[in-house]
Amino acid sequence: MKIMSETKPYGTVLIRAKQILDYLEQKDQPVNLQTICTSLKTSKSTVLKILNTLCLIGFVKREEETKKYSLGISLISYGEAAKKSFSIISVAERDLIELNNQIGETIHLGAYDQDRIVYIKKLNAKSRIILRSQVGHSVELYCSAMGKAYLAEQKEEVVRNYLDRVRLEQRTKHTLCDKIALMDDLRATRQHGYAIDDQENEEDVYCIATSIKQNGVIRGLVSVSSPVYRMSEEKRMKIITLLQQAKRNIEQKLTN
């Protein structure tokens, strides 16, 4: 998660601690102290002091035999409590499940947070091929379908300010890094009512997304993701139709 430059942090220890937690969250296996220090480019003494404190409060677990670190079980309750604060999850859940059953592809529900979209709900595809995305992970706005669906709802001045402060990285050969081309894409998104990510964020993955609004305010974003080889034109049109129907259903529930 990005720390907004306009906000002056109170000290740097909490920021360092968050960087360590973010790093551990990305790892499938426990890692040793030296690996953490090297990856974060931080001194061993600093990292060790922070890790000891995080272990003390249960946010990090240290294996005595291997002396390796991983996220602690105490974080689970915080994650569950945070999910409950997003009422959109419970409101949208039935429609997301129905969409997942109708299409058979991966469904994501996301929320905007500091220039990124965070996954707050995921329903896996019915096939054996499972996308690597996880709840809690986040994606950039400019190269993801949910991100572009969000940007398309913003005033042009807001979008231009965003493009001026972020670095447009060429994540794949399909990523739009030209600001003019991206603005044109967002105008098309606004006109169509849905956004497309054609391998712009991840190779071989095609995504379609739309926003969920309540009284004109974006409450969340829903996407359907599929391997490119399964995305025929017929299936694409079916997804768009069902996605827009799910959007209407969820927005109606939010209104009521």
TrEMBL record:
Any one GO biological process = negative regulation of DNA-templated transcription
What GO molecular function annotation could you give as one example from this UniProt entry? Answer: DNA-binding transcription factor activity
User: Which InterPro entries does its entry note?
Assistant: GAF-like_dom_sf (IPR029016), HTH_MetabolicPath_Reg (IPR050707), Tscrpt_reg_IclR_C (IPR014757), Tscrpt_reg_IclR_N (IPR005471), WH-like_DNA-bd_sf (IPR036388), WH_DNA-bd_sf (IPR036390)
Which Gene3D superfamilies does the record associate with it? 3.30.450.40, Winged helix-like DNA-binding domain superfamily/Winged helix DNA-binding domain (1.10.10.10)
Query: Boundaries of each IclR-ED domain copy?
Result: 74-256
HTH iclR-type domain residues: 11-73
Highest taxon above the source species: Bacteria
- Output the Pfam families linked to this UniProt entry: HTH_IclR, IclR_C
What are the UniProt keywords, alphabetically?
A: DNA-binding, Transcription, Transcription regulation
Q: What is this protein called?
A: Transcriptional regulator
Q: Which organism is it from?
A: Sporolactobacillus terrae
**Biological classification of the source:** Bacteria, Bacillati, Bacillota, Bacilli, Bacillales
